[in-house]
Amino acid sequence: MDNSVTWKPDVLGIGYLQATLELKPDAEGEVVATLVKALPPKVPSFFSRLVGKAEQVATNTDVLYIHGWSDYFFQKNLAEYWRSQGAQFYALDLRKYGRSIRPGQSEGFIEDLSDYDEEIELALEVMGHGTEKSHSDSRAAAGRKLVLMGHSTGGLVLSLWANRNPGRADAVVLNSPWLEYQLTAAARALVTPALRAGAKLNPKTKMPSIDFGFYSRTIDIHKDGEWEFNLDWRPEHGFPVRPAWLNAILTGHAKVAAGLDIDAPVFTWLSTKSLLVPRWSPEMKKADVAIDVNIVAARVHHLGKLVTLSRIENAMHDVILSARPVRQKAFAELTRWLKAYL
Fold this sequence. Notes:
- It is built from 9 helices and 9 strands.
- By secondary structure, the protein is of the alpha/beta class.
- The chain has a 9-stranded mixed sheet, sandwiched between helices.
- Helix 4 (about 155-165) packs across helix 7 (about 245-260) and helix 5 (about 185-200) packs antiparallel against helix 7 (about 245-260).
- The longest helix is centred in the middle third of the chain and has 18 residues, at about 185-200.
- The mean pLDDT is about 90.
């Protein structure tokens, strides 16, 4: 089904292609999303097969990954993990994020998280997992499995999508999903009425920034991290927060709190601790500085009937960007889970 779009070289270099997905325009003009595709799965070597180490837990599987807030796909090590497990990996830069940002747009802006259904469906159609499952070219019809993977806000978006679309995914993998407001559900309920009023009157007004740049510092190779990324697409202090966007997020949180019924098995990574303070500390390289992991851990059990929570010690918000021993532990936990459920 990949021939339905035009692929071209991606900014990540050799081994990565991208395709533009045209979406319905809005008040800001042209709207697009961008689908990134990694190289096909790795084939185990003859030696690996000979010594019995060739097992791949995600063969015949397609993976769709969605990034978090003020983010885009640059985590090549994630793609390499899935390739090593036999999967075909795709990542989606949502509208007004990363590769999909167009001049004059309000970065990351959305008024209803379900609006992302448009690009998710287009991406799945390209991947061969569209709604026309009986189509002769459909990978779903050919028995290929589908794994949805989301980080932070992307985890919230995909959890809600999977709940609205039963039977489409074979597994859902969440990397520190933002499932609840940092200051508890009571605080969310308190601020929501005023926020909704503001969203109607001035939906795109820039709200005061609460991002001190600490998380960016923990991952930036030029500061205290290991990773190189585009600061125009992933700014140090994040995108401006706007009332309509935050209202959409809190509405999503309320739906999770009320209980979802995702019919696929769900796996979630979370750090064992958060560090949500207004002053830099080296300990932030060993904690989640974006969400309250204990509050989110309680919400994980509201996602469906078959959920697994893996708490990773010393993990950062994007678990796979943590220190090497930490991310290796996280990948090992995911592999063990995939053996059981995929």
